[in-house]
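Input (structure):
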């Protein structure tokens, strides 16, 4: 019998990035993780990733999430509102659909620990929403400037999390993740990030992403579905996006298994050794 101490399995954090309709790829990723028996007790999302992540955090199966995404139309997210300030679209349909699919009112009621990343227009800083009304947090993290109006939460005026960080691995670590699996849907040229940059230049104020040093860094495993050539603003490519998510997640399974095993070895060592990040592309 080995005298080596047994390590508790690492707490897995799942980070789902933004990308409008490209977020359908997250459903394919979740299908593969579920089939492989990989469960993440910590979930963080930006924009579309937060919408899918909240469903996962609520305990919805990957099959249920996939069915909901395949059935969704733009009318489920917003409607035109010419007289509305700050945005062309009214997001009340999104709030109604959140309440329809996720049977909890607050973030604290979710089965898994959850955080949504947004950006505060007034304070010019990143905000990690981990408590309070779920529908408000999800509307805030997906409030694309110019399209959707900002969301007021307390004394904050919040917009799309892509202005802050589209794949916030640090947020999962702040919530207690030992090992972070992140899904990035697009690269630095994504249109939301470009819009954010132009808005920041107009406001003449830099972004402030305050992350404690111990939580900074890359995810341990980065999954990158191949989404090039698929329109992020159209539902027509949703089946292809789900398939792309599956392919990328299947390719990442060996890296995930190795990272979990390596982190388990590290947790029995004194002092713990650093685990290199694995980019599963």
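Output (sequence):
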């Amino acid at each position: 019998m080995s005298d080596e101490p047994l390590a508790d399995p690492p707490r897995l954090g799942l980070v789902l990035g933004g990308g409008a309709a490209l977020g359908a790829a997250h459903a394919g990723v979740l299908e593969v993780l579920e089939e492989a028996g990989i469960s993440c007790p910590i979930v963080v999302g930006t924009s579309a990733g937060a919408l899918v992540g909240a469903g996962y955090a609520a305990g919805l199966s990957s099959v249920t999430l996939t069915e909901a995404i395949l059935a969704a139309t733009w009318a489920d997210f917003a409607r035109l509102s010419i007289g509305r300030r700050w945005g062309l679209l009214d997001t009340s349909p999104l709030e109604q659909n959140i309440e329809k699919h996720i049977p909890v009112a607050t973030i604290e009621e979710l089965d898994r620990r959850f955080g949504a990343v947004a950006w505060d227009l007034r304070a010019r800083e990143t905000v990690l929403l981990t408590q309070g009304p779920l529908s408000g947090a999800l509307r805030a993290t997906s409030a694309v400037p110019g399209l959707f109006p900002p969301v007021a939460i307390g004394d904050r005026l919040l917009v799309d999390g892509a202005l802050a960080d589209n794949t916030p691995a640090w947020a999962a670590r702040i919530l207690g993740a030992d090992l972070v699996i992140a899904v990035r849907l697009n690269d630095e040229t994504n249109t939301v990030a470009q819009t954010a940059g132009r808005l920041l230049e107009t406001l003449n104020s830099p972004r402030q992403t305050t992350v404690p040093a111990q939580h900074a860094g890359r995810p341990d495993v980065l999954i990158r579905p191949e989404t090039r050539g698929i329109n992020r603003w159209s539902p027509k490519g949703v089946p292809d996006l789900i398939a792309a998510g599956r392919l990328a997640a299947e390719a990442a399974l060996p890296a995930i298994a190795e990272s979990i095993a390596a982190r388990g070895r590290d947790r029995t060592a004194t002092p713990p050794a650093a685990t290199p990040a694995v980019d599963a592309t």
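Notes: Residues 270-281 have pLDDT under 50 and may be disordered. The radius of gyration is 18 Å.
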